[in-house]
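JOB MANIFEST
job_type = single_chain_structure
chain_count = 1
residues = 420
[input]
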Amino acid sequence: MAARKRASSRAIATATDTDTSKSETPTSQEHADPPIAPPKSGLIFKLCLFFAIPYFYLLFYHYKIESELQRSILINAGLSLAGFFITQKMIPVASRYVLRRNLFGYDINKKGTPQGTIKVPESLGIVVGAVFLVLAILFQYFNFTADSNWLVEYNAALASICFMLLLGFVDDVLDVPWRVKLILPSFAALPLLMAYAGHTSIIIPKPLVPYVGLEILDLGWIYKLYMFLLAVFCTNSINIHAGLNGLEVGQTVVIASAILLHNIMQIGASLDPEYKQAHAFSIYLVQPLLATSLALFSYNWYPSSVFVGDTYTYFAGMTMAVVGILGHFSETLLIFFLPQVLNFLLSVPQLFGFVKCPRHRLPGFNPQTGLLTGTNDGTLVNFFLRLFGKMSEGSLCAALLVFQAIACCLCFVLRELLLI
């Protein structure tokens, strides 16, 4: 949930009646709403360079990965790169259409300033989701045959992602109540759970092996239940850990980058072809997610010129849940989501009605200083402000994304210490 306040139909009608500079004709509406700010391409270039160097070093130099697998990953990367530019070009076009349909919001964290009166296009995550699905479907032509064992699970994954994208857009349009939002991912996860044919066992951490007596424990149907809950959690956790320009997309970019590095490391260290294919499967979905999200990030980073909407948060959360489950590293994925777990634990009293939950659990904003102040609402955003003091929105978001990156690095360390 972004830091926005949606304009109701009554408010829109009132604004139209009282603002003499507006006309009811679509042409005048387009002139009244200025184009969105250009993308922050310099920031995206730096992020890409920072991640691409270690990623391609591991892929082509550090590990001896089969040329056929490298070829598939490169084809997918090429499609993802094309998806980045397509998404970046489509967002301004889609922005004009959503503004025309009065699908916009006002940035609450800038209330009382000129920026707080600007109409910000809403639900631009639909562009990312649409481009992602087209890329994922086209990639099947290059990598899967009709009798491929992975084709059923791949299409089931796309069905779950598409289902969640649709439900997210419905939520943006209809403004679904919180309690309904919490159960929406359970419906979208059904195609994934029905098609899953992988293992149902977990690796016991080394310090616990003497007490359990096993290195690998088969959980059976309990593992399927865990997968279901993981899909619900990942989808909602991105939506709940929000409220700042760039936070929803930024955390997705950080986690997706960590997932890609993890997959390459597992492929390079393994001799099992089936295990390698499972992690390659994850790469084929995460690379398009990362590329299209970076395109959206170029518009959504502070100060944001578009809002991603619940469409994007649901889509991104379900995509990462899918790759974690079908890539057989769902336990690792949960550690990548450590900040989201902490945010959920802080939010439990309000989410479940033990403490009054306002509609927007956002920090306070002082228009004179431009700084945010922590409130007593149970979110990681407010916790950071109470812990470290007042901050600007950009600085706070950057701090939270650094914390996300630290959590991902911690995950790699824990895997080395506990599982290897």
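[summary]
Residues 8-31 have pLDDT under 50 and may be disordered.
Strands lie at 4-6, 104-107, 120-121, 201-203, 216-218, 364-366, 371-373.
exit_status = 0
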